[in-house]
Structures are given as C-alpha cells and as structure tokens.
Specification:
Number of strands: 9
Distance between the termini: 108 Å
Number of helices: 15
Strand content: 5-15%
Largest sheet: 7 strands, mixed
Helix content: 55-70%
Structural class: alpha+beta
Low-confidence stretches: 1-6, 526-591
Radius of gyration: 60 Å
Mean pLDDT: 76
C-alpha cells in the first residue's frame, strides 16, 4: 500500500475492492452470456435442424424408392391398386419438401443440393413414371414394361446419388455444430472457473485486508482498553490503521479522560459523603438522645405535669363550689379564670401527647372497614350531636389498610369539627362519602356549617392555628393538625374543597386495595366509560348535591332501612354497627 493509499478510509478501500471485483464478475458474466447464446444456437442446430434434416432425407429416399417400386409393380400387373404407393409417396414427398425447405433456410449449400434431389426426382417422374403409366393405360402392361429399361434405372440411380450427397452434407454440418457445442461448452466451463478464481482471489484479498486493516487495529485498541479497565486510567489510548480506527481511538481516549476526571470527582464526592455520613451519624445519635429526652418529656407531661394541674384544677373547683357567692364578684371571676386555665392546659397537654404519638406508637396496619368504623365514630360523637341536634350520614365506604385507632381519631375529629362549626338556627348535617379515583379512595366529610374562606384553607391544618376566638368556638386548634398527620402517615393527602356551594368539604385520600382497583378497571369499558350501570369509581352519595334520597330517617332517632331495602334496625348505634353489610347509605339522626 502506498503512502497515498494509507490515508484511505476503510469504507473507501472496501468500495474499491467491491467495484473491481464487480467489474471483473460483470465482464465474465457478459462473456458467459455471449458464449451461452452461441452454445444454445449450436445445440439447436444439432437437435432441431441437422438431426431432423438427416431423418427427413432418409425418409425422402425411402419415399422415392416406394414410388419407383410402385411403377415397376404396376408395369408387371397392370393393376391400378399397385399405384397407390406412388400417389401416397408423391404426397409425402411434397410434405417433406416443405419441411426441409424451412430447415435448410440457414444452409444455402445444402439447400442447393436438396434442390438437385427434387429436380432429378421430377425428371424421373416426367421421363419414366408418367410415360409408363400412360403406356399401360393405353397398351397394357407389356407396353409399360418396354419403357422400363436400363436408362430408366440409371435415372433413378442419379436420384440416389443426389440424396447421398445431401445426406453427407447434412452429416458434415451436424458434425461441425457438435464440434461448436463442445467448444462453447468448454469455454463456458473456463469462464466459470475464471469467475470462481476471481471470487476466491477477492475473498483472499478481503480476508488479508480485514486482518491488516481491521482485526490488528481492533486487537491493539482492545488491549489498550483492557489496560485502562484494570485500573490504569492514566494509560493513553491511540488508534492505528484506517482513519476510522484512529478516530475511534481518539474518541475512546477522550472517554478515558472523561472517566478519569469523573472518578476524581467521585473520589472527592465520596470523601465529602463520608464526612457527611459522619456528621449524619452524629446527628442521628443526637436525635436518638433527643428522642429519649422527648419520650421522657412525654412521660413527665403525661404524669408529673398533669398531677399538679389536676391539683390546681381540683382545688380551684373546690374554692369555686365552696366560696361561690361568699366573696365578691371579682373573686368569683378570678377563680373561674384559674379553673378554666388549668383545664385548658390539661387539654393542650393531652392533645400534644396525642399528636406526638402518631406514627411513633403503632399497632400495625390491618384491613379496616370504614363502614364499621363509622359506627364507632357515631357512638363517640353522640353527645355532641345530641346537644347540637346534628344529623350524621354516610354512604357505602371501602375497606382500606391502616391503623384502626388512628383512623377512628381522624373521622371523630372531622365529624366533631363539622358539628362544632355550625350555623346558628340551622340543624347541622354531616355526610361522609367515598369514591375511587385512580389507585386512591377520596373520602369527603361535608357539612352545612359556616364554611371556610379560601384564603384560610391551608392555615386550618397548622397546629394551634385558630380562625376564631376561643370564646366563640372552644378547642385547642390541634384537631385538624392531627387529621393531617394521620392522613400523611397513611400515605394520603388532605385539603379543603372551596368550590362547594354550602358549608365545608374536607377531602382526603387513602391508598385503595389492589382488588378494588382491579374491580374498578374491569368494570370500565375500553373508551374509559362505565360498561354497564353507574360509575364504579364513585361510591356513596353527596348530601350537598341533594343525592341522599336513598336514606330514610325515623322520627324517633332510629335508623330506617334504605328505600326498598327491607327490614328496619331498632336503634341508631345498632344499625351503624351493621353498616359494613349494607348496600346503601347509613344515617345517624339525633333529635
């Protein structure tokens, strides 16, 4: 390879090799096509021309001999039946003449010899055959025999000689065509051998070129890469061979440099991470100590701090009962302040303890039927609902994974808040419903109370955040903070829906069981709409939208059966305890 050629790309070299081999093979193929055409022509001459000509010339001689024999027989017997071979022979001679004329079109010399045969045959008929026939018809058989002389035999022998000359000519042409067939066949074999040699040489050249231009450079490059792979990231990589491999070597070396730089950064990051881990370990130890202190504080808050508060509250209440009306009005007011402060401090401590225990003191997740849970919620909130003449209803609720005590606390806080923040002179109504959205249950607690302004929708979940004075609505302001922490502990989120036309709607999500999601998906058609019946993703009813007409309330506070549902339940709590087995909404009415 010259210096100029050394700069050729691998693609260029392969292209040149392919073009050269292709041109050689095309030339050989063209030559084979020409030789094959000639060979086919020679074979055609042997099989379809000279062969049939030879056979037909022999048949022609036999036909002429039959005519001569028929004339001699007719001359001997005078029987007209003996002339039948003569007439048949003349007809067959004409057919053979037509066929041989067509086959001899490409052989002028043979055509002339065939013309001589026909001419001599016609002369024999005019000079011998027809006169004999005419003589026999007029003078009898004896007259015909007189015309069959040695001269007539010599004339017919001339026909034989002409046919022999024609047959010899046809044989020579056939032998020449057969020789041409052998010659062209040998040439075809030679061309095929040349084509095979061209392919073989091209393959050898290709393998040699691949060995020198591809395999060796790649082997060298792979060896350098392996040296880097075992950890020698400072080893430079250079490519050899065609320009493509030199560029590949440069790219691999650039990658090596980038990896080396990244490894240096990784080492630095690892050192920083180790330092951070050390700090985190120290912080974890500090957090462990702090948690122990917090647990100790919680113990103190639940026992030691509440004991003095109970004493203060108890003695203040004793003072209030024993000396009420004996002191002046100002003293009674001071005592009332002291009692109220001690009681509020106890409530704050208890709420803080409850808030801190969420997620820390756990009983483990189990399957919780929210329908059964609502019965417990109704029982716990019954005193407040009786005082406010409140109505609690709920639709069909799902079974979810969670901690039953925490979920009970969650719903109790929501229902209590709805009852507490009611409108004056309007009986409170609280409704709990659920619907499946994606892989989560969205549970809604909606009431007809005073509502929440949109700008305060996020503040109500902040601990100790109050929107009203404690004189207007009692409480510590920690209930919704507990709700938010319980929901987030269960993997959901909670928010206030400010788009409801009346009251407050607090919505929160809880992860649905896989079976509920699969059932909802199987009940949904391919176009996303329900295949049959109501939307399976929506469970329960919406009181604010006026869709609670499937629930019947008895005037005495008992829970009536659903519309068309069958038997009644004797009491509110008893009916609620069976809510998990119902098929419609449940209602707790207190009047």
């Amino acid at each position: 390879m010259t210096t100029r050629g050394a700069g050729w790309s691998l693609r260029g070299r392969l292209a040149v090799l392919v073009v050269v081999v292709g041109l050689l093979l095309i030339g050989v193929a063209a030559a084979e096509a020409v030789v094959a055409t000639r060979n086919r022509a020679h074979i055609d001459a042997v099989l379809n021309q000279t062969g049939p000509l030879r056979a037909q010339s022999q048949e022609l001689l036999a036909v002429l001999v039959d005519q001569e024999t028929a004339i001699r027989g007719y001359a001997l017997t005078g029987d007209r039946e003996d002339l039948v071979p003569f007439d048949t022979g003349r007809q067959r001679e004409q057919e053979l003449a037509t066929s041989m004329d067509r086959l001899l079109a490409g052989y002028p010399e043979l055509h002339d010899e065939f013309g001589t045969v026909r001419q001599r045959a016609e002369q024999w008929r005019q000079a011998v055959a027809l006169p004999v026939i005419a003589a026999i018809e007029t003078g009898g058989a004896a007259a015909g025999q007189q015309l069959l002389t040695d001269r007539s035999r010599q004339q017919f022998d001339q026909i034989r000689i002409a046919v022999d000359v024609l047959q010899n000519g046809i044989l020579e042409v056939r032998d020449e065509a057969a020789a041409d067939v052998r010659s062209t066949s040998n040439l075809l074999v030679l061309l095929l051998i040349i084509a095979a040699l061209v392919v073989l040489v091209a393959g050898v050249v290709l393998l040699t070129s691949l060995e020198r231009m591809v395999i060796r450079p790649l082997t060298s490059l792979a060896g350098q890469v392996r040296e880097v792979a075992v950890g020698d990231y400072g080893h430079g990589i250079t490519g050899t061979g065609p320009p493509e491999f030199r560029r590949l070597g440069a790219d691999v070396d650039a990658m090596r440099q980038k990896i080396a730089a990244d490894l240096a950064e990784v080492r630095e990051a690892r050192e920083r991470i180790e330092w951070v881990n050390t700090q985190l370990q120290k912080q974890a130890e500090e957090l462990t100590r702090s948690n122990r202190d917090l647990e100790q504080f919680a113990y103190v808050a639940s026992h030691d701090l509440q004991e003095p508060l109970r004493k203060v509250a108890s003695f203040c209440q004793l003072l209030q009962r024993r000396y009420a009306g004996r002191l002046d009005e100002r003293a009674d007011q001071y005592i009332a302040f002291a009692v109220d402060g001690a009681q509020r401090m106890q409530r704050l401590i208890n709420d803080l303890l409850a808030f801190s225990r969420i997620g820390r003191l756990t009983t483990g997740f189990t399957d919780v039927d929210l329908n059964r849970l609502m019965a417990e919620v109704a029982a716990q909130t019954e005193p407040a609902r009786q005082y406010a003449d409140a109505e609690l209803t709920w639709g069909e609720l799902p079974v979810i994974r969670g901690e039953e005590p925490l979920l009970t606390n969650l719903l109790v806080n929501l229902v209590s808040n709805s009852v507490k923040f009611r409108r004056a002179d309007v009986p409170p109504k609280v409704h709990v419903s659920a619907r499946l959205i994606g892989e989560d249950w969205e549970i809604t607690c909606q009431d007809n109370g005073i509502g929440i302004e949109p700008e305060f929708a996020d503040k109500i979940f902040v601990i100790f955040q109050r929107l009203h004075a404690k004189d207007a609505y009692p409480g510590t302001g920690i209930g919704l903070a507990i709700v938010k922490k319980i929901v987030e502990y269960h993997g959901g989120r909670v928010w206030v829906d400010t788009d409801v036309p009346e009251g407050t709607a607090i919505r929160f999500t809880l992860p649905a069981l896989p079976a509920d999601v699969e059932a909802a998906n199987s009940a949904t058609g391919a176009d996303g709409s329900a295949a049959d019946g109501p939307d399976p993703a929506e469970v329960g009813t919406d009181v604010a939208a006026g869709r609670a007409d499937d629930e019947v309330v008895a005037g005495d506070g008992t829970v009536g059966a659903e519309a068309g549902g069958g038997s009644e339940r004797p009491s509110a709590v008893a009916g609620l305890a069976q809510a998990g087995g119902g098929t419609g909404g449940m209602k707790e009415a207190v009047g």
